[in-house]
Amino acid sequence: MATTKIAVVGSGISAAVCASTLARKGVAVTLFDGARGPGGRMSQRRETAEDGTEVSFDHGAPYFSVSGGNAPVLALLREWESKGLVAEWNHTFGSFDFLSREFLDIEKPGETMNKRYVGVPGMNSICNALCHETGVESKFGTGVGKLEWSDVQKSWSVTGLDGQNLGDFNGVVVSDKNVFSSRFTGITGRPRPLDLSWAPDLAVKLQDIPVDPCFVLMLAFSEPLSSIPVKGISFKNSKVLSWSHCDSSKPGRPTTSLGLHSERWVLHSTKHYAAELIAQTGLGKLTDATVAKVEDDLLQEFQRTGLNISEPFFKKAHRWGSAFPAASIASAEKCLWKPERRLAICGDFCVSPNVEGAILSGLAAASQLVEAVVETANL
């Protein structure tokens, strides 16, 4: 089985879990991602303020939970805890109503049903460790431009966005929706890398998976926002804000940089706000004017709570155009699988739109490929 080569496209948690699981089974894995590093929606953003202060943010998934009966994911969680890759985020959350200008439903100690976990020292720590395990060769900054199956060789050829031949593989795992999404063509003007005309049933399932767009604003303050009694806030009756969290309150996060104390918050827009703005501006590169508008809109709404929000010394907006799936297309199977071409498609859009669902999908994809490899070896 050691000679079996699998290509994994994407480096979010589903792809990283799948790649690690395959490698532990003796499969040679090459992982491709056009980004600078791993994580996908679990990536960590590092920035430098004008005065040279270094700040970092979990600007996608703020945390994750695991259901009590989910043994496979719980087993991975315990392993990651033992390695210091994750820790419990043990702080109080609540909701804020913009109509009454009051906090509602503030948690009481021990009230949370499922514990909240975060990667340490960033949400991307888990994916980073998995993508660099023995047996996984990770190639970041390497976008995939074409995945092509050969009936003669019974293998996949992978071509980069620059036309470079990236190798031939016995099977392929895809977790990056851009590989098969029409949005890829809409943004780049290029054909989508994975042509699914040979699998119309698969193409139908993957066609235009509904997503919830979101704009994120990363903020750093020189002093704590002491008027806020919680570290995670869900907003009610706001057309602009849906969620915010104090990123620097998570375990393992630095609270000082260059001698300056900083408290860092991340704000998430409502999907309605994001959809309206994207309808006006499109999904091309954000203009300076759009960035400035998002920064002003989200910060002003945060300050409109009346919670004595000071001016931040750092602010930066980010757009998640299609990262948050609004549907589950393979909740029973947990991944999409085509055995005749050893193609697995996994991600949170398969099971449930959260980290736990993504992990389950990655495990399912790895299981299908390992079984296919064993069957092939026995022929």
UniProtKB/TrEMBL annotation:
Top-level division of the source organism's lineage: Eukaryota
Signal peptide span: none
InterPro entries xrefs: FAD/NAD-bd_sf
SUPFAM superfamilies associated with the record: FAD/NAD(P)-binding domain
Pfam family, one: NAD_binding_8
PANTHER family: FAD/NAD(P)-BINDING OXIDOREDUCTASE FAMILY PROTEIN (PTHR16128), FAD_NAD(P)-BINDING OXIDOREDUCTASE FAMILY PROTEIN (PTHR16128:SF5)
Name of the protein described by the UniProt record: Amine oxidase domain-containing protein
Organism annotation: Turnera subulata
Lineage of source species: Eukaryota, Viridiplantae, Streptophyta, Embryophyta, Tracheophyta
